[in-house]
Design goal:
single chain, about 25% helix, 6-stranded antiparallel sheet, alpha/beta, 6-stranded parallel sheet, about 240 residues, 6 helices
Length: about 240
């Protein structure tokens, strides 16, 4: 189903990244599952399929008409140029959805490990906030986020606060290009490789980000570390 909406707010979120809020027209809420995405029809081409761009919803479902998207300038293409060079508050956005099966199945009976880079954190932010808001029973949650430098950390203060509030929630950040960083230096792989070195049947890994990171993580978890394919669920960003 197609929806008409318009941008109501834009904020900087980190180096080269912005948060965009859109509100759908009419009075009906936009219903979706935390982790899903929408397909936007952007004014960037005369050909329909070249106009369509997919973006994960970054906020949890709340029965409302406002959706948040986190978009990086480093994601190449006409869609990114449109959002960073042309779009502003009031700009019309047409989209269809919700789309995708990248969401949590309940009851949640296994530990959840979320691995992401850059704006790949968006669906996980939606999931974690939704679990908190609905007080959904769950096991342990571990969010592993990777980016280049400290200025690229997305939703960092929010996740740190949740780590002290949400039972069983752990939050780790790896920076690949900031040697003086006191936390993990390098890539996300070192964190889950150390924390889950012994394969266990009671874990589900969810992975979202650039294709190179996702490909590496899937290969490491299944081929090198011995996890079953059914325990590794992923979504690509490019």
């Amino acid at each position: 189903m197609w929806y008409d909406s318009h941008i109501i707010k834009i904020e900087d979120a980190g180096t080269g990244t912005k948060r965009f809020w859109v509100e759908t027209e009419g009075e009906n809420p936009f219903d979706f599952k935390a982790g899903q995405f929408v397909v936007m029809d952007l004014p960037i081409s005369d050909k329909r399929l070249k106009r369509w761009r997919s973006y994960s919803i970054a906020n949890p479902p709340d029965g409302g008409r406002v959706l948040e998207f986190c978009i990086s300038r480093y994601e190449p293409g006409a869609g990114t140029r449109f959002f960073f060079e042309e779009a502003g508050v009031g700009t019309a956005i047409r989209f269809k959805g919700p789309e995708g099966g990248f969401y949590l199945r309940e009851p949640i009976e296994k530990d959840l490990v979320f691995i992401c880079t850059g704006t790949g954190i968006a669906p996980f932010r939606s999931m974690i906030q939704d679990l908190r808001n609905r007080q959904t029973p769950h096991k342990n949650l571990h969010l592993i986020f990777g980016t280049r430098t400290e200025t690229g950390i997305l939703y960092g203060q929010e996740m740190e606060a949740l780590a002290g509030e949400l039972p069983g929630f752990r939050y780790d950040v790896a920076l690949s290009r900031q040697p003086e960083w006191p936390g993990f230096r390098g890539y996300v792989h070192q964190i889950y490789e150390a924390a889950y070195a012994t394969a266990r049947p009671d874990i589900l890994f969810y992975i979202c980000g650039w294709s190179a990171m996702v490909d590496d993580a899937v290969a490491k978890l299944i081929v090198e570390m011995g996890y079953d394919r059914s325990q590794v669920i992923y979504e690509l960003y490019g």
